[in-house]
Write a structure and sequence with these properties.
Radius of gyration: 19 Å
Strand order of the largest sheet: 1-28-27-26
Number of helices: 1
Mean pLDDT: 91
Oligomer: single chain
Shape: globular
Number of domains: 2
Low-confidence stretches: 2-26
């Protein structure tokens, strides 16, 4: 994913103008603001992930993973130290979690009951996205500085393969029935297709017209991939069986996460540059359209979805006003207000029947 709290020109001013509670800016549509969960602490953030059955939300923050109870909407623990933390993958059947610690080129294996790190695995340089593959019970780290993926056994931590990739990897998704993992290659604007049995790249598919993909989501029932492309601000819908681009919709700048809800058929793209979540729907293989541009908070670029409640969660913080207004084109380093880190929660106005929690 894009670097934690990256420097974006003029963003500091936009943040202060947006200000306030994210939900107060929400446009009409299926989603609305629900609440803020205060977290506090210092430092940036990256991926978030949900264990829907356990009712837990994991948010990577600074050098740790923050654990939130999604029923109480409260912080209940943390996991660390994980220097340079990026992502957190979950293996519920093993009672394990896996954190990519980019600052030390390792993946941490975590006991989900105790929230303690039990061991660490050496990976390639700067493991970023991390993904658990349940069929073979293997973990993939996607290493941003050496264009590779490290694959290790989830039970033992033994490295079983190193996969060379064509460029800088971002997020990944899997179609278990097809035996394939799909991985965005940001600097090549393509998707790498990995065979889970052979640990080999068996295809690369261009995302044109999409450029510089980051977040990735999958619709298993209809064999579609949704890739958030930050280079030209669009979400691309691709056929996951053959790599054909089926359509695309415009999104905000600074996209870093995508999700898909199989019940509502909504695809989500969260963009930190303007503080929006684009919610789109595919009603046919070629009809892909935006149903809502949800206003959140500038800087809230990472997101996850709870498929049980259909709620989405975004990390956010407040930022100080720069001492002097930036000049046009000038880059400004954002300064976080101490202790302002939080999670924004959005839910459906009329959730599907039986899913109103």
């Amino acid at each position: 994913m894009r670097k934690m709290l990256c420097v974006i020109g003029l963003l500091a001013v936009a943040i202060m103008l947006a200000g306030g509670r994210g939900g107060m800016l929400a446009q009409e549509g299926p989603y609305k603001f629900v609440k803020e969960i205060p977290v506090g602490g210092e430092g940036g953030w990256d991926y978030a992930s949900v264990d829907s059955a356990a009712k837990r939300l994991y948010v990577t923050h600074a050098t740790k993973v923050v654990v939130i109870d999604t029923e109480k909407d409260a912080v209940v623990g943390e996991i660390g130290p994980t220097p340079g933390i990026h992502g957190f993958a979950i293996a519920p059947e093993l009672g394990k979690g896996f954190a990519s610690a980019g600052g030390e080129n390792k993946a941490a294996i975590v006991d989900l009951k105790t929230l303690q790190i039990t061991s660490k695995v050496d990976t390639g340089a700067n493991p970023d996205a991390i993904f658990y593959e349940p069929t073979r019970q293997e973990v993939y780290t996607f290493n941003g500085r050496d264009n590779s993926s490290t694959v290790f056994d989830a039970k033992t931590g033994t490295v079983v393969a190193t996969i060379k990739l064509s460029g800088k990897p971002e997020f990944a998704q899997e179609d278990a029935k097809a035996g394939r993992i799909y991985n965005n290659i940001e600097d090549k604007s393509e998707i790498a297709v990995i065979d889970v049995k052979t640990h080999a790249v068996v295809a690369t598919w261009p995302l044109a017209p999409g450029e510089e993909p980051s977040g990735l989501a999958i619709d298993l029932a209809h064999h579609r991939l949704f890739s958030g492309c930050g280079g030209n601000n669009m979400m691309v819908m691709m056929d996951s069986t053959n790599g054909k681009v089926l359509g695309h919709v415009p999104i905000g700048p600074g996209v870093d996460a995508n999700n898909y809800d199989p019940v509502t058929n909504y695809a989500f793209a969260s963009s930190g540059g303007d503080g929006t979540v684009t919610i789109a729907q595919a009603t046919s293989p070629t009809d892909f359209r935006v149903v809502q541009t949800l206003k959140t908070q500038v800087g809230s670029r990472t997101m996850t979805l709870d498929p049980r409640t259909h709620k989405i969660y975004l990390a956010a913080a407040q930022y100080e006003t720069p001492a002097t207004p930036p000049q046009p084109g000038q880059r400004v380093r954002r300064t976080m207000v101490p202790g302002s880190f939080k999670v924004l929660v959005y839910g459906m106005t009329n959730p599907p029947k039986g899913d109103r929690n």
